[in-house]
């Protein structure tokens, strides 16, 4: 799925496991958000959601999952939690050195 327009709108609130829109979001943004959230590719299983919450609690950051989490996301998260290192420290992902984060 391509990145939806609502994702970069000022009405989108990107809280871990609690994506939502502000109360003043226009109807077109609300419609796109609802369609995206109800799309079969967006629905995630409970095991993945639980694992992602555990990752957030352990590292204070969300598990990188855009545009979709990798097939082995739960396995990666379990490895990170067991070794007490995030995905970057374990080499699953790397940060682009040319970008200031």
| Mean pLDDT metric | 84
The Rg value, from CA coordinates, equals 15 Å
Q: How many angstroms does the end-to-end distance come to?
A: 25 Å
Helix percentage range: 25-40%
General form: globular
How would you classify the quaternary structure?
Answer: single chain
Please mark out the parts with pLDDT under 50 across 5 or more consecutive residues, or reply none: none
Structural class: mainly alpha
Q: What letter string, H or E per element, gives the SSE order?
A: EEHHH
Q: Biggest sheet: strands, sense, closure?
A: 2 strands, antiparallel
Strand content: under 5%
Task: Show the helix and strand layout.
Blueprint (H helix, E strand, L loop, with lengths): L11 E2 L6 E2 L5 H12 L7 H14 L13 H11 L18
Antiparallel strand pairs: 1-2
Helix pairs in contact: 2-3
Report on this structure.
This protein has 101 residues and is mainly alpha-helical. It contains 3 helices and 2 strands, in the order ββααα. The longest helix has 14 residues, at 46-59. The two termini are 25 Å apart. 12% of the residues are buried. The model has no long low-confidence stretch (mean pLDDT 84).
Summarize the entry for a quick read.
The protein has 101 residues and is mostly helical.
Task: Fill in the keyword field for this structure.
101 residues; two-stranded antiparallel sheet; 2 strands
């Amino acid at each position: 799925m391509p990145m939806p327009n609502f994702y970069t709108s000022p009405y989108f609130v990107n809280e871990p496991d609690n994506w939502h829109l502000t109360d003043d979001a226009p109807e077109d943004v609300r419609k796109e958000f609802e369609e995206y959230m109800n799309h079969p590719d967006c629905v995630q299983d409970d095991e993945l959601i639980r694992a992602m919450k555990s990752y957030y609690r352990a590292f204070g950051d969300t598990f990188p999952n855009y545009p979709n989490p990798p097939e082995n996301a739960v396995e990666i998260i379990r490895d990170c939690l067991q070794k007490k290192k995030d995905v970057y420290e374990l080499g699953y992902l790397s940060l682009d050195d040319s970008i200031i984060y």
